Amino acid sequence: MSLNRLTRAALGVAGAFAVSAALAVPAHAVSVVPTTECATPVITQPFAEWGDGNWYKRVDGGAFEEVSAGWTLTGGATVADGVLSLPAGASAVSAPVCVGHDEPTLRFFGAGQGGLTVAIQFQLLPGLWITLPVGRDTGAAWKPSPIIHMLANYLPAPGDYTNVRFVFTPSGDWQIDDVYVDPRARA
User: Fold this and answer.
1) Distances (CA, A) of 8 to 3, 22, 35, 149
2) What is the pLDDT of residues 8-41, one digit of tens each?
3) How does DSSP assign 46-80, residue by residue?
4) What value does the mean pLDDT take over residues 136-159?
5) Under CATH, what is the fold of the domain 31-186?
6) Contacts of 37 (CB under 8 A, 6+ apart)
7) Between 62 and which of 142, 148, 179, 184 could a Cys-Cys bridge form, CB atoms 3.0 to 4.6 Å apart?
């Protein structure tokens, strides 16, 4: 094995240990900016027809009936005819969404070419947002997205809540509609 390969292998092992160590730390040990301004959500079962009987709350502005002031659209992203259109190279960042331990997943309806990367942003300090990729969707036909585990819902201490934002970035042209969070303990 060449020195270069050996060095890369050693760095890979060291990286794996670092990730393992980071994951071994209780998530609530990471301090996020808490919030107490969480409204009681209206919950529905929008994915029941597809075998998902979980209860969900819609993300503010996530119906895309009009452009929401809380969403940030870049790179040619637009809202028209009740959907969010994301051409390749565009992105959309949701308005802040209040989540806690009892809100573990994200889902939406969508269709597109290529892949759609979904990331979550959470705030460690006022003004400091961290972005973490959490899922990917593919497919040309309109359908519910896979269930995406947002992970950042475990950052606040149990019983606390924090605001997160969702980031949608396509590699091809996409349309999405009706973005929801699963508040399983609030049903």
Assistant:
1) 9, 21, 42, 31
2) 333 333 333 333 333 443 444 455 665 656 778 8
3) TTGGGT----EEEPTTTT-SS--TT-EEETT-EEE
4) 80
5) Jelly Rolls (2.60.120)
6) 98
7) 179
